[in-house]
């Protein structure tokens, strides 16, 4: 299985995001659709050790607040078409809003550090595909947004180029700690023999 991170910015650049309702930019679809379902291609990690290795930080934290915004693609200046598929396109053709996707950016206060260069009490920002923007709800089919999770979350995260973080993927990157088990937001066990934060620490460090 793949073990590299595909960040939200990389999803935009690679074009591996599809909108099942239509392919128009968010502002054009707002008047026409109540909900648009998106599908993104994420890496899947073969076990907890691989997931931990693919994470820059792993924390247990408390959601504080969030905002919904447009994430625009990072436009490369390279003239090599292999490195930059947009090379040679006129600036007028590169409409950043048309290529943007809706994301929810959640602030999470760190309660416990499992891995990485953060401290208890820090507040980090975590981006996820989806949210309600201009009256339309955008929903990535495998993503539960952090504001929708009941209780504290355990997050396996990769750092982005904009000083925030993305979950390594929707299922393995956002976990719920019940006190007796760690499971994904749909109630499924994600990692065998990893039922507590201490188990997770031992597995990823």
What can you tell me about this protein's structure?
This protein is mainly beta and 205 residues long. The chain has one domain (8-204). 12% of the residues lie in helices and 35% in strands. Strands 3, 4, 5, 8, 9, 10 and 11 form a seven-stranded antiparallel β-sheet that branches. The protein has a four-stranded mixed β-sheet with strand order 1-2-7-6. The longest helix is centred in the last third of the chain and has 8 residues, at 197-204. The radius of gyration is 18 Å and the shape is globular. The model is unreliable at 1-6 and 21-27 (pLDDT under 50).
Main features:
205 residues, mainly beta, seven-stranded antiparallel beta sheet, four-stranded mixed beta sheet, 4 helices, 12% helix, disordered N terminus
End-to-end distance: 21 Å
Query: How much helicity do the residues have?
Result: 10-25%
The largest sheet is: 7 strands, antiparallel
Count the E strands: 11
Shape summary: globular
Order of helices and strands: HEHEHEEEEEEEEEH
Content-based structural category? mainly beta
* SS strand fraction: 25-35%
Calculate the mean pLDDT score and round it.
81
Radius of gyration: 18 Å
Task: Count the DSSP helices.
Answer: 4
Task: Name the quaternary structure.
Answer: single chain
Spans of at least 5 consecutive residues with low confidence: 1-6, 21-27
Domain module count: 1
């Amino acid at each position: 299985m793949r073990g590299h991170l595909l960040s939200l910015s990389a999803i935009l650049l690679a074009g591996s995001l599809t909108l099942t309702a239509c392919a128009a930019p968010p502002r054009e679809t707002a008047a026409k659709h109540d909900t648009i379902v998106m599908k993104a291609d994420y890496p899947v990690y073969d076990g907890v050790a691989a997931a931990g290795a693919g994470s820059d930080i792993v924390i247990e934290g408390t959601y504080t607040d969030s905002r919904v915004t447009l994430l625009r693609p990072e436009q490369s200046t390279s003239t090599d078409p292999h490195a930059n598929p947009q090379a040679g396109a006129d600036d007028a053709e590169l409409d950043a809003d048309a290529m943007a996707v809706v994301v929810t950016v959640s602030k999470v206060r760190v309660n416990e550090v499992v891995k990485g260069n953060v401290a208890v009490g820090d507040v980090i920002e975590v981006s996820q595909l989806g949210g309600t923007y201009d009256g339309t709800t955008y929903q990535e089919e495998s993503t539960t947004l952090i504001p929708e999770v009941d209780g504290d979350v355990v997050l396996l995260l990769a750092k982005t180029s904009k000083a925030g973080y993305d979950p390594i993927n929707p299922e393995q990157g956002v976990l719920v700690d019940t006190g007796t088990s760690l499971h994904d937001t749909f109630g499924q066990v994600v990692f065998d023999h990893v039922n507590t934060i201490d188990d997770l620490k031992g597995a990823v460090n």
